[in-house]
Design a protein that fits this description.
Elements lengths: L4 E3 L6 E3 L15 H25 L14 H8 L6 H14 L6 H17 L6 H10 L9 H18 L1
Antiparallel strand pairs: 1-2
Length: 165
């Protein structure tokens, strides 16, 4: 076999290197580049499908509660002790007003993620409503801190109370 020839994969006949159809068996011959591009394309599709289904169906995590719910509905589902959406809204609105947060869906979502993550960090020993109640009770108008900082400090203070008992 010379440098200017190749072997047909179907009939095993030696043919010209540039031939796209075997003159003996008339089968189409693919170039190595086309084969490589098709394999890469198939792998990209497989990885995309896997990624899409992996991330869209990961319902075992607290942050992946369906996006069809409002933040208050998520809180109602996730908060410990089954508080109603109205109870959560009243308490959260009080805390948000005290700590200069505009009352809107985006800020509810931020508060939800902060409160749930703080509760999980305490191994569920402090509830989200405990944190909100402490934030409201300990409010000082001359202390300018963010909602997340006050929530963290409140969680720490409540955890210290539980730890000292």
């Amino acid at each position: 076999m010379s440098n200017k020839t190749k072997i047909c994969p179907k009939c095993r006949t030696e043919i010209d290197y540039k031939a796209s159809i075997c003159p003996n068996c008339k089968s189409k011959l693919w170039s190595s580049l086309w084969t490589l591009l098709i394999i890469i394309f198939i792998w990209v599709i497989i990885i995309w499908i896997w990624w899409y289904y992996w991330w869209s169906n990961s319902s075992n995590t607290w942050w992946s509660v369906s996006s069809n719910f409002t933040s208050l509905e998520k809180m109602e589902l996730v908060f410990i002790w089954n508080y109603s959406k109205e109870d959560i809204k009243l308490k959260l609105d009080d805390a948000m007003v005290l700590y200069w947060l505009e009352i809107n869906e985006n800020n509810y979502n931020i508060a939800w993620s902060i409160l749930v993550s703080l509760r999980k960090n305490t191994n569920d020993s402090i509830t989200e409503m405990d944190i909100l109640n402490y934030m409201i009770k300990s409010y000082s108008p001359w202390v300018k801190m963010s909602f997340s900082d006050i929530a963290w400090i409140s969680t720490w203070a409540l955890y210290e109370k539980i730890d000292s008992k």
